[in-house]
Specification:
about 350 residues; 13 helices
Length: about 350
C-alpha cells in the first residue's frame, strides 16, 4: 500500500491552526486569513495554505469562529408535535427544503423541541440563554402568536413560514396563498360542470384553514353558487373527517374541496361506506399534495405548496435581516398549484373507480 505523504497530528490528536501554518511555511495569522479573509493573501500563498489544510484535514473550530465573528452560522427551528399528524408530511418536506437552502448558504439548522399546543416561548428562551444562534425560522404561526413580538423586542432576527393572522404584522414572513389554491380548485370543478361544491375544513379560528375557506367562498360567490349548508368542519384526522363530510354528501354535494389531503382521505372513506367512488360519483380535491395523494386509488387531485421556494425565501429573508436589521419587513406570498388527478371528473362521468 502506498505510504501517505501527509503528516497528520500524532496519535490522532486534532490538527491545529499552528500545525497547518508550519506545514505551509507561513504564520498562524496567514492561515486564519486564508480561512476568513482570503482576499488579503496573494494567490500563490492562498493556494499553498489551502493545500496544507486539505492535506492535513484541518477543520476550523466553530466555537472559535463564533467568538471572532460573533456569527455562529446556526439557525434555530422549533419542532412542534402536530395533533393527528394532519400537517406533518408538509412540515417534513418544508424542513428538508429549509435545511437544504440553509446549507447552500453556509448555515446549519439547530432543531429543538417545542411543547404541544399553540405557539409558545418555551424552548426559544432556553435556546437563546444556552446557545448562540444567529436567528430563527418560525412555523405553525397562529393567532395570538407571542413569538414574533418577543423576538423583535430582543433584536433577534427571525422569519416566519406563515402570516401572523391577527393584529399588527411583525417581522418578515413567507407564506403560501391558500385562498388562491382553493379558488383554483373551485374553478376546476365548475369547468367540469359541478355546481353543488362543498367545503370540508378545520374549525373556524385557524388562520390557515380560514384562508383556504375564503378562497372557496370567493370562487363560489363569483359563480353565483350557494354556500349555505355546504360547509362542514372537522378535526385534522381521517375518522373525524369521515363523519363530518356525511351531511354534505347527504345534502347532494357532487364535489368536495377539503382543507387538507388528510380530510380528503376521510371523504374517500365516507364515499366507500355508501358504495360510491371518488371521481366517478363525487369529485374530491385535497390540499398539500402529500406523498399519499398520488398513490391513492383513485389518485387524489390536490393543491401543491411550493415548499422548496418557501425554504429558499425564508433563508433569503433571514440572511437579509441579519445583514440589515433596520431594513423594511420582507413579506412574500407564493402561489400554490393545482395538481389534477383521477379524483375529479364531470358529474356522472365514468371516472376510474377504486
Amino acid at each position: 500500500m502506498p505510504r501517505s505523504t501527509s503528516s497528520p497530528s500524532p496519535k490522532g490528536s486534532p490538527v491545529t491552526l499552528a500545525m497547518v501554518a508550519r506545514r505551509a511555511g507561513v504564520s498562524p495569522q496567514t492561515v486564519s486569513n486564508a480561512i476568513n479573509s482570503p482576499d488579503l493573501l496573494r494567490p500563490e500563498t492562498l493556494e499553498r495554505v489551502r493545500a496544507a489544510i486539505d492535506e492535513m484535514g484541518y477543520r476550523p473550530s466553530r466555537a472559535a469562529q463564533t467568538l471572532r465573528t460573533r456569527c455562529s452560522k446556526l439557525i434555530g427551528y422549533g419542532i412542534q408535535p402536530v395533533p393527528g399528524g394532519d400537517t406533518a408530511p408538509v412540515m417534513d418536506r418544508f424542513l428538508h427544503a429549509l435545511s437544504q437552502a440553509a446549507d447552500e448558504a453556509g448555515y446549519r439548522m439547530l432543531l429543538f423541541a417545542c411543547p404541544p399546543g399553540g405557539p409558545s416561548l418555551e424552548g426559544y428562551e432556553e435556546l437563546l440563554g444556552q446557545h448562540d444562534v444567529d436567528g430563527f425560522v418560525l412555523s405553525n404561526t397562529a393567532r395570538q402568536d407571542p413569538r414574533q413580538a418577543w423576538l423583535a423586542k430582543r433584536g433577534v432576527p427571525f422569519v416566519g413560514f406563515g402570516r401572523m393572522w391577527s393584529g399588527r404584522q411583525i417581522g418578515d414572513w413567507v407564506d403560501v396563498d391558500g385562498a388562491s389554491g382553493t379558488d383554483a380548485a373551485v374553478e376546476h370543478l365548475v369547468a367540469l360542470g359541478h355546481r353543488r361544491i362543498a367545503f370540508l375544513g378545520w374549525p373556524r379560528g385557524s388562520g390557515v384553514g380560514d384562508d383556504r375557506a375564503e378562497g372557496w367562498q370567493r370562487a363560489m360567490r363569483r359563480h353565483g353558487l350557494p354556500t349555505r349548508g355546504r360547509r362542514a368542519e372537522s378535526a385534522g384526522d381521517v375518522e373525524a373527517a369521515r363523519s363530518a363530510v356525511k351531511p354534505l354528501l347527504d345534502a347532494g354535494a357532487t364535489a368536495v374541496v377539503a382543507v387538507s389531503d388528510t380530510l380528503a382521505l376521510g371523504c374517500y372513506h365516507a364515499l366507500r361506506e355508501r358504495d360510491a367512488a371518488p371521481g366517478r360519483d363525487v369529485a374530491v380535491v385535497g390540499f398539500d399534495d402529500s406523498p399519499t395523494a398520488g398513490i391513492l386509488s383513485p389518485s387524489l387531485s390536490t393543491v401543491a405548496q411550493p415548499l422548496e421556494a418557501v425554504g429558499r425565501e425564508c433563508v433569503r429573508l433571514l440572511l437579509a435581516r441579519m445583514a440589515d436589521p433596520a431594513a423594511s419587513p420582507g413579506r412574500v406570498l407564493l402561489e400554490p398549484s393545482l395538481v389534477v388527478r383521477d379524483s375529479t371528473a364531470a358529474p356522472g362521468s365514468d371516472a376510474p373507480a377504486p
